[in-house]
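Input sequence (223 aa), recorded before submission:
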Amino acid sequence: MKILGINGSPRKEASNTRKLVRSVLDGAAEQGAETELIDIAEQTITFCSGCLTCYTTGSCIFDDDAQEIFALMQEADGIVLGSPVYILSITGQLKQLLDRLTDAIHCQMLSGKYGCSVVTTGGSSDQEVLAYLNRTLNLFGVTVVGGERVAMASGPEAFQEALADSRVLGRNLAEAIATKRRYPEQEAVLTSLQKLFSHYAEVAKETYPHQYDFWLTKSETNR
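Predicted structure, token format:
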């Protein structure tokens, strides 16, 4: 079992978000998972240009660390996303990566995986940003097992509690993967997304042949 943690904070090892991500991974490791943590700020990721070449060919025009990170996401059984709140949203560094992976969303390339998210904030919007990250995981086809958030203004005790809860979250993530835990409500959402994106591919097959071929192959494989 492999679980990948992605820290979206530019503060790297000084980041409180990183500590939460690390705690999730430590909890998963207690259940036997092999874990890896990536600091986005240490990677070279070019902004998406909106050229849509990935929709057409399945390849990105940029050769940078986004490709390697996505390969690690594909290899993992579980994915942990972490970000501090930056003006009501996630950091630009993490958004930069996610924007580069829209083809993976349209093709549901992470379908079958499990994930969770963690968020830190000074004092507000942590609930909204956590919901955004977990919804983003769903868009990739990932089943979400939960999340953890903390406002630093609540004091050091709140952060210590969040660290402990994040460790429990990690154990829960590993157990969900090991048992192939079912989440019926999410299954309905994920099934509807697959139908939606496969329909998009059919409608735009002349414009985006890669995505059409991807869904056609998947459909034939599942027969």
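Checked by second reader. Strands lie at 2-7, 34-39, 78-84, 114-121, 143-151.
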